[in-house]
Amino acid sequence: MKLSALPIRALVVTLVAVAILLRLGFWQLERAEQKRLRAEQLAEREQTTPLSLEDVSKLNGDIRDYPLQVRGALLKGRLIYWDNRVLDGQVGYEVIVPMVTDDKTLLVNLGWLAAPAYRDQLPDVSVPQGVVSLKGVITQPSGSPLSREMGQDSGWPLRVQQPNISRLEELLERPLMNFIVQAGEPERFGLASNWRPVTMPAQKHVGYAVQWFGLALAAVVIFIVAWRKRHQSKR
């Protein structure tokens, strides 16, 4: 290996590393802006009067975070346990149940409860009979829209790794609205709230961006210092 080739190779490696680090930094800034806009949307929409299902059907664009008032019967024989949901460091389930209204069926996330000690057991949930009225917030599963796999067990109640509305329509043999209602008062079902629409604030993404930019600067400084030392040693 020729010594003269070393600075060129080191320069190429440094430039590639700096490009990657800068891209990661700008990506974190993009994420920070997304989180800022989402926080503004949450603050704005939580002041809105709860909508009806008819109101929701008239909305265009992003329907997340709108408050909703619904009334219908919960299908307690079709419970869906969303697996591996963590609250305060404890693993548990979020319980989703279909609700049948006058002319529509939608999914309602009743809330979170801790998992039993043994995997072959599912916790009991108190689902009221008859028609119930509840307020909630419109949410949508964050999984890949291209994936239809839920990783579900067979039979009811159903344990899934990720709710997929189109797949659940097939299992329930009925059409569903394209969102999940996050119940606003999980305590009435003996459950806890685990809804975290923004899991990381925008400021934290900015902090990560600063770290990536700092590493890019450090890579440039290290290269310059190493190049100068090598240049001086040749004199």
TrEMBL record:
Keywords, sorted A to Z: Cell membrane, Membrane, Transmembrane, Transmembrane helix
Annotated Pfam families: SURF1 (PF02104)
Compartments it resides in: Cell membrane; Membrane
Annotated TM spans: 206-227
Gene Ontology CC, one term: plasma membrane
Its membrane topology: Multi-pass membrane protein
Family from the record: Belongs to the SURF1 family.
Xref: PANTHER family: SURFEIT LOCUS PROTEIN (PTHR23427), SURFEIT LOCUS PROTEIN 1 (PTHR23427:SF2)
Name the record gives this protein: SURF1-like protein
Organism for this UniProt entry: Saliniradius amylolyticus
